[in-house]
Every structure is written in structure tokens, then in C-alpha cells.
């Protein structure tokens, strides 16, 4: 599912206009992004948790030349699925 499809489905389920649904989805994405930039964690009970992890500086290799290169330290966003989401994706078999 792409963002446009998500917005269309959101509009249909909430009986909102496409423009209002677009604004709502974009606002949620903006809020999560802003909080992650500040270093906060965003938890949505039952769905999952968005967080930022630090990656240490390390050495890598240029695959074309084999030359050793330095890879700078960075931060990367992370998502950990919540128990309810995991359970719905992996239903128990009887």
C-alpha cells in the first residue's frame, strides 16, 4: 500500500473528504517525525513504537575498489511492532 492508497482508505473509513484525510495523515507523519528529531520515542499502544537509535562510526569497504573507507556515526529511525499488531499478523492456529 502506498501513501495515496492509505489516504484514500482513511478517507473512506472515516467518511472524510480526500483533502481532509490527506491533511490528517500528513499531520500524523509530521508529528512523529518532529518527535523523533527531538530524540523522543513515539508509542502507539497495540500498534508499535517509533524510536531513534545511534549507529557508531565504523570502517567499510568500497565494493568497486576494495578501498577502506570511514562511515560516519549516524542516527536511524526504528519501528518495533506492538503485541496486538504482531498477533494480528501471526494468528494462532488451532
From TrEMBL:
Keyword Metal-binding annotated: no
Pfam families with a match to the protein in the record: Bac_DNA_binding
GO molecular function, one term: DNA binding
Record keywords, A-Z: DNA condensation, DNA-binding
Domain of life, source organism: Bacteria
SMART domains associated with the record: BHL (SM00411)
CDD domains: HU
rRNA processing in keyword set: no
Family to which this protein belongs: Belongs to the bacterial histone-like protein family.
Xref: PANTHER family: DNA-BINDING PROTEIN HU, DNA-BINDING PROTEIN HU-BETA
Protein's recorded name: HU family DNA-binding protein
The species this protein was found in: Massilia phyllostachyos
Amino acid at each position: 500500500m502506498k501513501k495515496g492508497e492509505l489516504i484514500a482508505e482513511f478517507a473512506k473509513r472515516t467518511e472524510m473528504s480526500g483533502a481532509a484525510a490527506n491533511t490528517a495523515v500528513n499531520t500524523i507523519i509530521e508529528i512523529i517525525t518532529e518527535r523523533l528529531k527531538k530524540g523522543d520515542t513515539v508509542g502507539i499502544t497495540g500498534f508499535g513504537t517509533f524510536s531513534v537509535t545511534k549507529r557508531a562510526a565504523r570502517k567499510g569497504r568500497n565494493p568497486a575498489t576494495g578501498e577502506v573507507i570511514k562511515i560516519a556515526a549516524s542516527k536511524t529511525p526504528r519501528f518495533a511492532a506492538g503485541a496486538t499488531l504482531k498477533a494480528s499478523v501471526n494468528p494462532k492456529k488451532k
